[in-house]
Amino acid sequence: MADENWKPKIIAIICNWCSYAGADLAGSARTQYPTGIRAIRVMCTGRIDPLFIMKAFQDGADGVLVSGCHFGDCHYLEGNYKAAKRMFLLKSVLKNIGLDDKRLRMTFVSASEGAKWATVMEDVVNTITELGPSPLTELAR
Amino acid sequence: MAEVKKNEEPRIGVFVCHCGTNIAGSIDIKAVMEYAKTLPNVAIADDYQYMCSTPGQNKIVEAIEEHKLTGIVVAACSPRLHEPTFRVATREGGLNPFRFEMANIREQNSWVHMHQPEEATEKAKDSVRIAVAKASLLEDLIPKSVPVERAAMVVGAGIGGMQAALDLASAGIKTYLVEKNPTIGGKMSQLDKTFPTLDCSQCILTPKMVDVFRHENIELLTYTEVEAVEGYIGNFDVTLRKKARGVLTLEEAEARGFVGGGCNGCGDCEDVCPVIRPNPFELGMAPMKAIYIYHPQVSPLLYTIDFDSCVKCNLCVDICGDKKAIDLNAKDEFETVKVGTVILATGYDIFPIEEKFEWGYKNYDNVITSLEFERLICASGPTGGHLIRPSDGATPKKVAFVLCAGSRDNTGVGKPYCSRFCCMYSLKHAHQIIEKIPDAVPYLFYMDIRSFGKMYEEFYYRIQDEGAKFIRGRVANILEDPVTKNLHVNAEDTLLGRPIDVEVDMVVLAAAVQPAAETDATRRLFGVSCSQDGWLLEAHPKLNPCGTTTAGVYLAGVCQGPKDIPDTVAQAEGAASAASIPIHLGEVELEPYFAVCLEDKCAGCGMCINLCPYQALALVEKEGRTVMQVTEAKCKGCGTCGGFCPGGAIWMQHFATPQIIAQIDAFLLGGEQ
Q: Nearest-CA residue of chain A relative to B107?
């Protein structure tokens, strides 16, 4: 079981135009949030192959956050719709292999929603901390 | 293109920026730098106070040569700010600029974890490790140059759009000026005087309207809306809906063979039209026919039929006679034009102030908005410039002006922002009634008077000296005397610290402004973001206030946020300048984030074809096999195809699967060495 010093490993894959810009805005506004998440930037959430997320879980991620533009706001028209469909599908896969599907989260944070980004960060860290270490952690060792 | 060169041993240089104390204040720079040296493939790690400065950039240039680097990582601010800067330095050092990767340790680290230095430092180390992993796999990319169509479009023909169009056109660029209303001029044409100079609005606006109409490089498209947008900077294909106007211009009539025909603005049709309805230009305070012009100074001087109210009695057709200008069977027409750049100048609407029910707008006759006041005080308005009370036509002597009506309002009904020009026009209104009505007393209920512009504060003092009464306090409610129709304005005078009740003849609400109704639909067509209040989002609030995140699309005027006429005109000229740059250059470079088909892996299933929002992918026959082919000019690099391809046959340049997997692995597996 997890020791007292356990801290969740959470990876965020976020789109350049909305969520990454929103995260930057949270920074400009000096909105403080927990440190537990590392972000990788892609141009669009549509780029995110479900295999990236499976790989992250296989590598021992305790949680994965995918964040893009609001529906109708995608810089590439509809990439976020496709990403949402894939994440929805992937959640059912996760359930079937015995992972809590709350470990994968998709959010929609626009370039002007710095405060929302901070809330999402807090929320995701709390959710994953509550869930504890991923049962796949052993695989990554 | 394609696979990472396996024979090349990556040699990465890592540079950690202090950004003064912005980063160094909460992150241990030395620790991050020392850690970077231990990472695989890292040939050199260094730090500097300000990496973006000349000495900082020189460090990169020199290190590339000295250490034979194959990739650069700068751990500093957001790539959205300085990636272009460091790409230039990377290129100057002799590397392909796309062999650069940024670790964001400011916006997404030091600034958001200011009180957790240890954890922030750990996060910075992770970020550097992730960036090094990607930089080790980056490859040379060549941006694609595309020609820029020598034409521009301005959407919205208020003062901002008109100014932008005039500047573009005067710079020799063919400009399509699109306006949804039948006439150009926008909100400014509804104003009487302009602060602080008290220029007559029409007198300074109508000459510009004529200039726009006459300019040989401007194609004026009134009563027209943007229907669809395709393409990218340099090559936008914009489909326009020309709404059915029912009236032919001289040119349109000639095209139909009625030489000498077409609408000459004589107005005979209006005289015979039996349908009477409210004139929206006069805010419903004057009548208008079904075939109409808003006011005599419209440009173009061309009648329009409102087909929602037209009864098709044919009286107008008969009186128009040989001019044959009227076509009651007109339908919407569509036209697609190609432009290189676009300026959005879609303006604003007045917040529906009746939602603040406590002030009684639309409930009490004598509560009006400032825009209605403008029409009533304007010599060309419905009352010929005589301010009257709507209830009885009497001249009001005591008039209350309620500032911040719906602005700076966090109650949930109203807008949290300052609408920025209401203070000044309310001061102007106060001056106007003092000037026009003997013994008139204006009462201004204000929170703060924001007279921020050139000569504005002086104007404020002038109005004080003229006898206007200023009461600092927000109006709680307004009650009507049912007999006299006078109004009791209840507020707390916060300077005297007591509630007051002022009985006045009329109340003018300086209502908040909000983005024009069609703004949201229009911005989505052009892929422009908006702020939480719906105003269009500029590329950078300080350093790129006219640009947007969509290359080739620029902003002018209030659509970007409330601003007065001088600021609108200034931004319009800025936007016109920015929009003319790609056109004058003749070609622009597109970021080379294209999809590339790895033909040996492609099974030709075609699943990707329908995923592409830009129709950039197609199946082709090659050497007896069916494979996918990308049209680079159409591909915008979103990667939606690459995120799906079941065979891993789509290589997204700069965001390739091995590069992203390397980042994931570096974070999750790389830290425990």
A: A27
Residue B520: band (very low, low, confident or very high) from pLDDT cuts 50, 70, 90: very high
Distance of CA B597 to the CA centre of its chain: 36
Domain ranges of chain B: 12-141, 151-242+337-347+516-587, 250-331, 352-514, 595-653
- Cβ–Cβ under 8 Å, residues B107 and A27: yes
Mark B195-206 as b/e (b = at least 16 C-beta within 10 Å): bbeeebbbeebb
Q: What residue has token string 């800025």?
A: B574
When pLDDT is cut at 50, 70 and 90, the band that residue A2 belongs to is low
- How far, in Å, CA of B527 to CA of B447, rounded? 37
Q: Is the Cβ–Cβ distance between B18 and B29 less than 8 Å?
A: yes
- Chain centroid offset of residue B342 CA: 11
Q: Helical H runs in B279-362?
A: 315-320
C-beta atoms surrounding B380 within 10 Å: 15
Give the fold, CATH level 3, of B595-653: Alpha-Beta Plaits (3.30.70)
Q: Note the helical H segments in B586-650.
A: 607-611
The CA-atom distances, in angstroms, between B293 and each of B182, B183, B230, B265, B267 are 8, 8, 33, 9, 9
Output the pLDDT for position B2.
41
Output the average pLDDT for chain B.
94
Contact between A117 and A25 under an 8 Å Cβ cutoff? The reply is yes
**What is the per-residue pLDDT across A85-94, written as a single tens digit (0 to 9) for each?**
999 999 999 9
ipTM of the complex: 0.97
Domains B151-242+337-347+516-587 and B352-514 share a fold: yes
Residue closest to A15 by CA, chosen among A61, A52, A57, A68: A68
For chain B positions 92-151, those within 8 Å of chain A (CB to CB) are 104, 106-109, 111-116, 119-120, 122-123, 126-127, 130
A73 contacts in chain B (CB < 8 Å): 524, 529
What is the CATH number that goes with domain B12-141?
3.40.50
Name the residue facing B664 among A41, A43, A56 (closest C-beta): A56
* B474 vs B496: CA distance, rounded Å: 13
Q: CATH second-level architecture of B151-242+337-347+516-587?
A: 3-Layer(bba) Sandwich (3.50)
pLDDT of B673 strictly over 60: no
DSSP state string for B21-57 = TTTTTTS-HHHHHHHHHTSTTEEEEEEES-TTSHHHH
What pLDDT is attached to residue B1?
Answer: 40
Closest Cα in chain A to B115: A32
Q: Which residues of A touch B652 (CB under 8 A)?
A: 47
Task: Please give the CATH topology (third level) of the domain spanning B352-514.
Answer: FAD/NAD(P)-binding domain (3.50.50)
Residue A77 pLDDT level (bands cut at 50, 70, 90):
confident
- pLDDT reading at B507 higher than 70: yes
